[in-house]
Specification:
The complex is a heterodimer of chains A (543) and B (238).
Chain A (H helix, E strand, L loop, with lengths): L5 H23 L7 H8 L2 H34 L6 H13 L2 H12 L4 H8 L11 H25 L3 H10 L3 H29 L3 H6 L8 H10 L4 H25 L21 H31 L2 H6 L1 H37 L5 H16 L5 H12 L9 H38 L4 H29 L3 H6 L7 H10 L3 H21 L16
Chain B lengths: L7 E9 L4 E8 L3 E7 L5 H9 L6 E6 L2 E2 L10 E4 L11 H6 L10 H13 L15 H15 L3 E5 L7 H18 L2 E5 L3 H7 L2 E6 L2 E7 H6 L4 H8 L1
Parallel strand pairs in B: 3-8, 3-9, 6-7, 7-8
Antiparallel strand pairs in B: 1-2, 1-4, 4-5, 9-10
């Protein structure tokens, strides 16, 4: 009776092989170097430690700013459960997550850059000292742009899960704004804080594209970007290995700390279930909330608007007609489709095997280990960032001459692995409830194989499958991390094209490309997000 | 305050929901327990929400203890409320939960702490002050909520299916407690319920709602005799 366990085992073997080979390649890479003292020196290289310090510094500051700014925004948003445009504000907060980092970086440049709106306004006011977006400032701006809205959504979900009765009792007891914050809001937010802060820190510590585009020189370089530079520009594998080891150490420590300190925040998409609130009726509270929400909306919307406007001004239709663009689009779409399919296939194998292993009545140690392994395989991938995986395979394939022929395959695999945690998160609950609902019935009716797949499984799971596929495809389409190492004349994806146009100062083209890429990714993410968001004006509660 | 002033008065109150419009005209005298009955969606909770100030009428007026309530926020009304569930803040201990009924900023004097202890003793939970709600049974949690209503010292008590999550033994105990407090403090109680035995055991008056209007507002014994009405027969037969 080994039925149902094979797919997950195969997926595990595949993952272990792919990640393991990359790690082995990294660990043994310095054997081929001329002097082993070079590698020893690399460990104590000033730039390595500077990268580590900067990685932690920028991630810490980004987390502090993102979470600190998200708290008042989430509170204001929760306190105003129905106003015109609220649903659009909540949706706006979901946008950055679906946007490729490169596109967002371009938008931020349009607003905060040297020629951007802010600096022009400052100059007009007679202030000559411009805000510089390159370096730490820019990285922080970009990380807040991405993570403040994410934190807002997570906090808002928590606040909206507060039972409606609590608001009524608070109103009946006459709790003022401070007492409400102390007794009702803060306890909920405090519970979410470690998880949200940990998630944001993790995202910022492993952010690649934003640091690559907005970081300024060696002083503002993170470990991931340093790995890329070591391989791509300096060709110093020893340093890449040292950096990779440090990066894995950092992510491992972070993941462990997260697991110990904080449960993963629930992706509470509860935008429609807002409770009636009885507080904040005064004018000062209204004005304060309006100001907070307007500023947050402006901060998030301005870069998006900038991308749209400058993209439209660059006549995107002309770009679409260019063969370079068409080739890049085709490459991107093929890679995205392949990696999304692979990611979903791997997820389904892992989940179904875990379910099968957990459903057994007798569970020997081997079976329990298998269940645990399939359960954590998805997040273990987080341990080895795409650039490190890429570095490993880069070193592994180098002896075989050009990496060119393997490049698309490696990019597809890395992208598939990147999407794995998200695909599993979408599919696992859906598959579990589907099994619980239908498996006995299907067995008693003798439905199996193709018939069961066609009549029972696919119709029920179509939505989550679609969501996982489009989310994984969007992630792959917007990714620069894997393709940055392997991109070449023969492998040009849309982000790679955009990046090289930026590098050669063809900003017109870059703006147009960013708009097109952003639109494709947003479209895919929209398909990948559940759309059960309705805002009933008056919530009926008569039971 | 003269005893002739009605405790609760709703005059030509109208409230429109997308599905239906509710209208209430109602007078409830001071003292006594009024059971509020009716099918799901008949407007029982909305009636309580109007009195407590969680809903504002589109038309008409609400007066409590003779005072118009149009501009009075929930905290300013002479009303305590207890819901079916989630009456307590789970992260605060029992004494703090009750203390919020005395002062929302929790600036409590020694006398206040004594009255918290007394209220706990009155509901049979002496020494429970340091416990947290998750460690209590459903019945104990409801009695803590009742203790908080006691320290609020407000003349009207609104109970929205407060026994619904309790098993029969606990229901009887809680019902006895409420009946005793009504007499002791002269409370005016509105009790939303689905159970005929609550009506027999507790109610002095019955308010029977149907499709957002008041079908009957009569003394209990009259209500129990009206089995000629199919709605009443269905309720009592259930």
């Amino acid at each position: 009776m080994r039925r149902g366990l094979v797919p997950g085992l195969l997926a595990l073997l595949f993952l272990a092989g792919f990640v393991g080979l990359a790690l082995i390649a990294l660990l043994t890479a310095d054997a081929g170097l001329p002097a082993s003292s070079a590698s020893a020196a690399a460990w104590f290289d000033v730039t390595v430690w500077r990268s580590l310090r900067f990685t932690l510094l920028q991630a810490g500051l980004s987390t502090l700013l993102s979470v600190g700014l998200a708290l008042p925004v989430a509170r204001a948003l929760a306190r105003r459960p129905c106003f015109a445009g609220r649903i659009w504000l909540v949706r706006l907060m979901a946008l950055p997550l679906g946007l490729p980092a490169l596109v967002a970086a371009l938008g931020l440049l349009g607003v905060w850059g040297r020629q951007g709106v802010v600096n022009q306004a400052l100059a007009w006011l007679g202030l000559s000292d411009p805000v510089s977006i390159y370096g730490l400032t820019g990285i922080l701006l970009a990380h807040v742009f991405f993570n403040m809205p994410l934190a807002v959504r997570l906090f808002l979900g928590g606040l909206e899960r507060i039972p409606a009765e609590h608001w009524r009792i608070a109103a009946n007891l006459g709790l003022g704004p401070f007492a409400l914050w102390r007794f009702v809001e803060w306890p909920v937010l405090r519970g979410l804080l470690p998880g949200v802060a940990g998630l944001v820190f993790m995202l910022c510590a492993t952010s690649f594209t934003l640091v690559l585009t907005l970081g300024g020189g060696p002083a503002a370089t993170t470990l991931e970007v340093a790995i890329y530079q070591a391989l791509r520009f300096d060709f110093d594998p020893a340093r890449a290995v040292a950096l990779s080891a440090l990066q894995i150490g950092v992510t491992l420590a972070l993941l462990m700390a997260l697991r110990l300190a904080a449960p993963a925040p629930e992706e509470g998409l509860t935008a429609g279930r807002a409770s009636r609130r009885f507080d904040g009726a005064g004018w000062s509270a209204r004005l304060a909330d309006a100001a907070v929400l307007a500023l947050a909306a402006l901060f998030v919307a301005a870069p998006l608007l900038s991308v749209t406007l400058s993209g439209l001004a660059a006549r995107p239709l002309r770009l679409i007609a260019e063969p370079v663009f068409q080739r890049a689009l085709l490459t991107s779409l093929s890679i995205a489709a392949a990696s999304a399919a692979l990611s979903v296939l791997l997820s389904l194998s892992l989940i179904s095997t875990r379910l099968a292993a957990q459903a057994r009545r007798h569970r020997p140690l081997s079976l329990r280990l298998l269940a645990a392994a399939t359960d954590s395989a998805g997040s273990l991938v987080l341990l080895v960032p795409p650039v490190v995986l890429g570095a490993g395979w880069f070193l592994l394939l180098r002896p075989f001459g050009s990496v060119g022929p393997f490049a698309p395959v490696i990019v597809i695999l890395i992208n598939a692995l990147m999407a794995l945690p998200f695909a599993i998160r979408i599919l696992a609950p859906a598959l579990a409830t589907h099994r619980a609902r239908t498996s006995r019935l299907a067995e008693s009716l003798g439905l199996s194989g193709w018939n069961r797949l066609r009549r029972i499984d696919l119709p029920c799971l179509a939505r989550p499958l679609m969501m996982a596929l489009s989310f994984a495809a969007a992630l792959s389409l917007g990714d620069l991390g894997a393709v940055a190492l392997f991109g070449s004349q023969d492998l040009v994806t849309l982000p790679y094209l955009l990046f090289s146009r930026l590098g050669s100062y063809r900003t017109q083209d870059a703006a147009g490309l960013a708009l097109l890429l952003g639109l494709v990714c947003l479209l895919l993410t929209m398909i990948g997000t559940p759309a059960t968001m309705t805002s009933p004006h008056r919530i009926k509660e008569d039971r | 305050m003269s005893a002739t002033v009605p405790a609760i008065q709703l005059q030509a109150v109208r409230l429109a929901f997308p599905a239906r419009t509710l209208s209430f005209d109602l007078e409830i005298a001071q003292g006594g327990i009024t059971a509020v009955l009716g099918a799901s969606g008949s407007g029982k909770s909305t009636l309580l929400n109007l009195i407590a100030g969680f809903e504002t009428p589109d038309q008409g007026s609400v007066a409590l203890m003779g005072q118009p309530m149009a501009a009075v926020p929930p905290a300013g009304r002479p009303v305590s409320v207890i819901f079916q569930d989630n009456n307590l803040f789970a992260h605060l201990d029992v004494a703090t939960n009750i203390g919020l009924g005395i002062d929302p900023g929790l600036r409590l004097s020694q006398a206040d702490r004594t009255s918290i202890e007394a209220a706990l003793a009155r509901v049979g939970l002496s020494g429970f002050g340091q416990r947290r709600p998750p460690s209590l049974s459903g019945g104990e949690r409801q009695r803590v909520a009742l203790a908080r209503a006691l320290v609020q010292t407000r003349p009207i008590l609104l109970l929205d299916e407060p026994f619904a999550a309790l098993d029969p033994g606990l229901r009887a105990g809680m019902a006895g407690l409420i009946a005793a407090l009504k007499v002791e403090l002269g409370l005016t109680v509105l009790l939303v319920t689905h159970h005929p035995e609550d009506v027999r055991r507790l109610a002095d008056q019955v308010l029977f709602l149907e499709e957002g209007r008041i079908l009957l507002h009569v003394p209990r014994d009259v209500f129990l005799a009206r089995t000629d009405l199919p709605e009443v027969a269905r309720f009592l037969g259930a």
